[in-house]
């Protein structure tokens, strides 16, 4: 149900974005140039964002922003595996993402800015994202747009991991209704999974397909139950 609604919402968000404003600073100019490169590469804005963290680790005052952008596209007071977030965004796929976390989740109000995290930054990294997505995945979405590009981030003390895939629901028909008048549920199918990790497939509380991640120190692929 929720996944189907997200797919409909995402398809609805894939309209041509308004012309970008003229840059006023060098940072803004770099951001707008990056944004245009990604729009040209992917052909349309919009993706589903999935964020969690390695089991047993927690990150406070988290913000994700396109590199050189003024505002974040994702914020979380406390990011853990159990506080996974899934959300649909209508903006272009970011070329690079700045990930920041702090020593607390406390917030403060700044005149002219609004609320923001007040803790000291203890983690700050720039991650390649849009340039890593395989062209074959992009071509497949263009061929059959009835699917969502998912960008997945798993925060880790070794450095944030990035993954991606296409989510589709084969056979889903919004006109088909169950006895309660709701759209008939169709389980998602994923293709083109890649990147630094892949989450486990869980059924009835048990992993039916192991997850994995690439250890950044050794390069080894390590299996997980989540």
Give the overall pLDDT as a whole number.
90
The assembly state of the depicted protein chains is single chain
Largest sheet features: 5 strands, mixed
Radius of gyration: 19 Å
Helix/strand class:
alpha+beta
SSE pattern, N- to C-terminal: HHEEEEEEEEHEEEEEEEE
> Termini separation (Å)?
22 Å
Helix coverage percent? 10-25%
- The coarse overall form would be globular
Cross-sheet strand order for the largest sheet: 4-1-9-10-11
Number of E-type strands: 16
Give the percentage of residues in beta strands: 35-45%
Compute the number of helices: 3
The poorly predicted ranges are 1-15
List keywords for this structure.
alpha+beta; disordered N terminus; single chain; 16 strands; 226 residues; globular; four-stranded antiparallel β-sheet; 3 helices
Descriptive account of the structure:
This protein is of the alpha+beta class and 226 residues long. The chain is built from three helices and 16 strands. The protein has a five-stranded mixed β-sheet with strand order 4-1-9-10-11, sandwiched between helices. Strands 3-2-5-8 form a four-stranded antiparallel β-sheet, with no helix packed on it. A hairpin with a 6-residue loop joins strand 15 (211-214) and strand 16 (221-224).
């Amino acid at each position: 149900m929720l996944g189907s609604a997200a797919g409909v919402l995402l398809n609805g968000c894939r309209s041509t974005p308004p012309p970008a404003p003229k840059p006023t600073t060098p940072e803004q100019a770099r951001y707008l140039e990056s944004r245009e490169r990604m729009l040209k590469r992917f052909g349309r804005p919009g993706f589903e964002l999935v964020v969690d963290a390695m089991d047993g680790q927690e990150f406070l005052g988290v913000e994700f922003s396109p590199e050189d952008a003024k505002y974040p596209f994702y914020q979380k007071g406390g990011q853990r595996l159990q506080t996974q977030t899934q959300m649909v965004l209508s903006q272009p796929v970011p070329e690079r993402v700045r990930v920041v976390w702090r020593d607390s989740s406390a917030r403060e109000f700044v005149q002219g800015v609004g609320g923001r995290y007040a803790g000291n930054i203890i983690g700050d990294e720039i991650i390649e994202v849009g340039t890593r997505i395989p062209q074959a995945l992009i071509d497949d979405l263009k061929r059959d747009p009835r699917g969502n590009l998912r960008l997945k981030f798993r925060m880790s003390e070794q450095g944030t991991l990035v993954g991606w895939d296409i989510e589709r629901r084969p056979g889903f028909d919004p006109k088909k209704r169950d006895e309660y008048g709701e759209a008939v549920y169709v389980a998602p199918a994923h293709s083109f999974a890649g990147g630094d990790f892949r989450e486990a497939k869980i059924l009835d509380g048990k992993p039916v397909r192991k997850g994995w991640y690439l250890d950044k120190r050794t390069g080894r692929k390590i299996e997980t139950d989540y």
